[in-house]
């Protein structure tokens, strides 16, 4: 029998043990998280307050902002606190909770992005039936389904991971409780865990990506049938932000979880994890606001109410 002790807490080793990098990393993480809070929180407030945004597309976008806030908040505050105080200890239950909410919200984002692709398909391919296809009840059902799939997936992985035994060293070579370093730390046989990860994560990614690809295949065919160049540009512009978000999100996931284990190191994993757990939630509101005239106009109106003189001067 392998020598192991029951874990009551873990130590998150972080991105690096170089003391000269702790303050710069603290500032970078804090800055990114503040931008994430302001960007996603602001997006939800604007969509809620402006009646023009009470449409299916913006309903899904507000939920995407909520999900981005969710899985960023599961990771970033603890990372910032550890860098600020130097206390890298996280309790066993705290680690499980962090892992559960991160996986739950991240998986829900996969399904929400698929819902948004279906919404764009309905708007472009069947515009005359759009209001009946994307009724409020349908949008609510798709959104609830996304959260259910997300947290069902999180429950499976959390139960499967935290039933394992962990060896005497409880040091997690990461800055948060992610799946690869937890499996690497376990002294149990993780063959079943790896199989579950491959099957469940593979299904979630493959199914949602398939919905997105099929939706955009029909969108592409529909756009090619539009005779005017201006009409094609207008149709494509409604999809550009979503396509950018999908490419960044799925590209990172596929690179992270589906590359051969022999070709990746834990240091590479940590760099990849920073991008998909902290940076992507910051980028999404920027992608949707910078490429969307309606959002920019609504933001300008809000700023004009708060600081009328500064906005009027800046707009000249």
Mind explaining what this structure looks like?
The chain has 316 residues and is mainly α. Helix content is 75%, strand content 3%. The chain has a 3-stranded mixed sheet with strand order 2-1-3. Helix 2 (56-73) packs antiparallel against helix 4 (92-125), helix 4 runs antiparallel to helix 9 and helix 8 packs antiparallel against helix 9. It is globular, with a radius of gyration of 22 Å. The chain starts with 8 loop residues before the first strand and ends with a helix. Residues 310-314 have low confidence and may be disordered.
Rounded to an integer in angstroms, the radius of gyration calculated over CA atoms is: 22 Å
Order of helices and strands: EHHHEHHHEHHHHHH
Helical proportion, percent range:
over 70%
Strand order of the largest sheet: 2-1-3
- Secondary structure tally, helices: 12
| SSE class | mainly alpha
Quaternary:
single chain
From the N-terminal CA to the C-terminal CA, the straight-line distance is 75 Å
Shape: globular
Residue runs with pLDDT of under 50 for 5 or more positions = 310-314
Work out the number of β strands: 3
- Main pleated-sheet profile: 3 strands, mixed
Strand content: under 5%
Whole-number average pLDDT? Answer: 86
Annotate the secondary structure layout:
Blueprint: E1 9-12, H1 22-49, H2 56-73, H3 76-85, E2 89-91, H4 92-125, H5 130-133, H6 136-161, E3 171-172, H7 179-185, H8 191-224, H9 229-257, H10 266-290, H11 293-306, H12 308-315
Parallel strand pairs: 1-3
Antiparallel strand pairs: 1-2
Helix pairs in contact: 1-2, 1-3, 1-10, 2-4, 2-10, 4-6, 4-8, 4-9, 6-8, 8-9, 9-10, 11-12
């Amino acid at each position: 029998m392998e020598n192991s002790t029951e874990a009551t807490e873990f130590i998150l080793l972080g991105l690096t043990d170089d003391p000269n990098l702790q303050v710069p990393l603290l500032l970078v993480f804090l800055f990114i998280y503040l931008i994430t809070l302001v960007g996603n929180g602001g997006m939800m407030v604007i969509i809620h307050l402006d009646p023009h945004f009470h449409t299916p597309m913006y309903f899904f976008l507000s939920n995407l902002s909520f999900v981005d806030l969710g899985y960023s908040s599961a990771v970033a505050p603890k990372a910032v606190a550890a860098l600020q105080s130097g206390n890298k200890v996280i309790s066993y239950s705290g680690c499980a909770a962090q892992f559960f909410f991160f996986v739950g919200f991240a998986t829900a984002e996969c399904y929400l992005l698929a819902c948004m692709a279906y919404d764009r398909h309905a708007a472009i391919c069947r515009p005359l039936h759009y209001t009946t296809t994307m009724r409020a009840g349908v949008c609510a059902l798709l959104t609830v389904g996304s959260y259910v799939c997300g947290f069902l997936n999180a429950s499976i992985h959390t139960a499967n991971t935290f039933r394992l035994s962990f060896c005497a060293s409880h040091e997690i070579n990461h800055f948060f409780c992610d799946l690869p370093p937890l499996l690497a730390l376990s002294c149990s046989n993780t063959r079943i865990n790896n199989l579950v990860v491959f099957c469940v994560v593979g299904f979630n990614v493959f199914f949602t990506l398939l919905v997105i690809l099929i939706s955009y295949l029909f969108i592409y065919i529909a756009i090619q049938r539009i005779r005017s160049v201006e009409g094609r540009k207008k149709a494509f512009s409604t999809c550009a932000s979503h396509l950018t978000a999908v490419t960044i999100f799925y590209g990172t996931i596929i690179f992270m979880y589906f590359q051969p284990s022999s070709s990746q190191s834990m240091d590479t994993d940590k760099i990849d994890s920073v991008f998909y757990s902290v940076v992507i939630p910051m980028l999404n509101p920027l992608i949707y606001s910078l490429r969307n005239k309606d959002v920019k106009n609504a933001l300008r109106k809000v700023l004009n109410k708060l600081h009328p003189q500064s906005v009027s001067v800046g707009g000249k």
